[in-house]
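Re-run with default settings, no changes from the original entry. Doing this only to confirm the output is reproducible before filing.
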Amino acid sequence: MRTVTVAAISDRRRRSQTTAAARAIELLRRGEIVALPTETVYGLAANALNPIAVAKIFEAKERPRFDPLIVHMPNRDWLEKIVDLPTHNRQLILNLADKFWPGPLTMVLQKREIVPEIATAGLDTIAVRISAHPLFAEIVHELDQPLAAPSANRFGRVSPTTAQHVLDELGGRIPLIIDGGATEHGIESTIVTMREDNIGVLRRGPITAEQLSEFARIDLVTPAKKICAPGQFPSHYAPKTPLRLVDNAETFSPGKHRRVGLLAWRPIGSAKKFTAVRPLSERQDLREAAANLFRYLRELDALGLDLIVAERVPALGLGSAILDRLERASHTQPVVPGTRE
């Protein structure tokens, strides 16, 4: 059993922040793994160019080796060090980077040989982004190496949005968790790939299809049987408690389920049939709902319920990303591993 340290970060205590960041950098340079906050969810970070360090991510998360990782770059100068930019849509890629980096947009591009195959699950592509979180940015900049950093939870489980979530998932498995408070967006980054004349959205996230459509035609890609990017499993982001999606909780009948929790979108007239209720956003604000999604799923999952019922949110803008996570959380079919077609 490993001893895990949770280092608190406070704007009022710069000394604590500097000490925690220095400890993280020391561990990363030694080939260890560290849990860090990003603007999306907490990530489990390792030097992306060190295959032994990257292997520790897979071991700690119990993640299948055929599931590729997102690599976070220190800055734009690293893009062409690890990616071979194609001539035909080079300008589109650079335009997206100008608009959305640093930020929650991940692009899947052709990798260079410098990137070890374990980070890309043997694929010839790599998923890259630059995080906007000031602490993450400080650490990766000082390290001056790209960091592989998938969500800091056990594979397939609900992604962590606080340091306590990481401790609950990985306590004893990793040496350091840096507490940067609750994450801003609360869901993982949008993942895109470049097609001949359009942008393929592989995973919905904080950067919406509407925002991306300003740059090119959008192609929404359904979850793949053969994994070509992180977060493509049909069954993912799942609590241990079974989850069912409904249009309106008022018409839901508990049936044989005695203890039912509700993840609500609409105002509830009577909550008597539910053991616990968590409103995603009382103002019905999609940004607030996204930020609360994983935290409330974890809270309901901890109550020993028979079932969690989640109301569908509007499939507009950020709502599409929330629905994507809820649909995968309710999916129970196994996925056949594979490689990119």
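The first strand starts at residue 5 and ends at 8. The chain has two domains: 5-88+114-186, 243-329.
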